[in-house]
């Protein structure tokens, strides 16, 4: 069985989060990090790059970077500075030629295609440009676009549920096409451990993500992970103490 | 014993994560493609992300194939290939029309196959368990628990035969070599620098060889 990942999304001032949430410790209990610059300004911003570096320096899991990436140089710069994958959203729809080029140079598995979805007139529609522009395409139709043959994973975010802490959009998960042959990371709405369990029973989802650090502050994530493992879900178990003990352990040898 | 760690820079691979992990461990690491640096080191890391064929073209152009071959003749020099880096240590790969590898081990690299009886998503991306073949004390596998998880991201894998010394398998549609140690030549298909505590343990074990 392909093991399920537990991904964490973070945006905002890295220093503040690292200090106030003890992010480094939190990161020992998750599988991957998605770092999204959701501001409306164009890339690159020196502050964003600095924040990203702070995160990459203290964590030992794959880290994806997303936010207004439009050129090969920008993408290459991210890979050179700690990103294992890049997250592309609007360009998937508006500039698939660029996305194909990224795929050709860096490999399809280096790309996470991000979709923001909201319900309109009883249909799940995909939006781009930070959720402001309606593509007019329904979720499954969008996922049939040829460009999806050139990406490695899908990050599916529910605009309606995002930030509510009321639970994931399970109906959306159920509606997903069975024919997808790349992993789907589901996001939007997690508020507590029960939401994780609810989502994990949907077989079309390969990974769950949350940005709601506040609801899991302290050891909330660690405890959720432990409970999921105890319930029989096949999550890796990390040894946080071991990692901390290794810090500078080889200095002077 | 003074450890001299060298990360081979041939333009492919996420060096940043590796450098930052070594920094965390307090281990100095040089980044280079020069013969004298390779021959002067105790631990060589061969990283790699991308196309096998492109990588071998660059490696041959820079004469890194002959430098690496010369380096591993010295039993005090250990080499660790990571991800594509491990595949490059092999005999050849099917990828991109096919290419010869460094041939430090005899195993061939072939593509994952998905069919109706055995449906798998390709590439293999995410965390997966490994199973070690035998007694592991003094190897890169020392101290790993029964179910150690590591981060994989690849579409091609190393064939099981011939058995490359002490090795671990991983199951994804079929069993493939997830890591091995044959004398002073080591390889991990997974990314130890992206695999939390288990990954750090493997890196520490390699550095302690």
Walkthrough of the structure:
The complex is a heterodimer of chains A (253) and B (209). Chain A has 253 residues and is an alpha/beta fold. Chain A is 33% helix and 22% strand. Chain A has 11 helices and 10 strands. In chain A, strands 1-2-3-4-5-8-9-10 form an 8-stranded parallel beta barrel. Chain A is globular, with a radius of gyration of 18 Å. A 9-stranded mixed sheet of chain B has the order 2-1-3-4-13-12-11-8-9. In chain B, strand 12 (174-182) and strand 13 form a beta hairpin. With 209 residues, chain B is of the alpha/beta class. Helix content of chain B is 24%, strand content 31%. Chain B contains 6 helices and 13 strands. At the A-B interface, helix 11 of A face helix 1, strand 8, strand 9 and helix 6 of B.
Summary?
By secondary structure, chain A is α/β, with parallel strands linked by helices. Chain A has helices at 14-20, 23-26, 46-58, 72-80, 90-94, 96-106, 139-142, 170-175, 193-200, 220-230, 240-245, and strands spanning 5-10, 32-36, 63-66, 85-88, 111-120, 123-128, 133-138, 153-158, 184-187, 207-210. The relative contact order of chain B is 0.16.
Query: Using only CA atoms, what is the Rg of chain B?
Result: 16 Å
Which parts of chain A are unreliable, with pLDDT below 50 for 5 consecutive residues or more?
A: 1-12
Helix content of chain A: 25-40%
| Global shape of chain A | globular
What's the number of extended β-strand segments of chain B?
Answer: 13
Tell me the helix content of chain B. Answer: 10-25%
* Shape type of chain B: globular
SSE order and pairing:
The complex is a heterodimer of chains A (253) and B (209).
Chain A: E1 5-10, H1 14-20, H2 23-26, E2 32-36, H3 46-58, E3 63-66, H4 72-80, E4 85-88, H5 90-94, H6 96-106, E5 111-120, E6 123-128, E7 133-138, H7 139-142, E8 153-158, H8 170-175, E9 184-187, H9 193-200, E10 207-210, H10 220-230, H11 240-245
Parallel strand pairs in A: 1-2, 1-10, 2-3, 3-4, 4-5, 5-8, 8-9, 9-10
Antiparallel strand pairs in A: 5-6, 6-7
Chain B: E1 5-8, H1 15-25, E2 29-32, H2 35-39, E3 43-46, H3 52-61, H4 64-71, E4 78-82, H5 84-88, E5 92-93, E6 99-100, E7 108-111, E8 124-132, E9 148-154, E10 156-158, E11 166-172, E12 174-182, E13 185-188, H6 196-207
Parallel strand pairs in B: 1-2, 1-3, 3-4, 4-13, 5-7
Antiparallel strand pairs in B: 5-6, 7-10, 8-9, 8-11, 11-12, 12-13
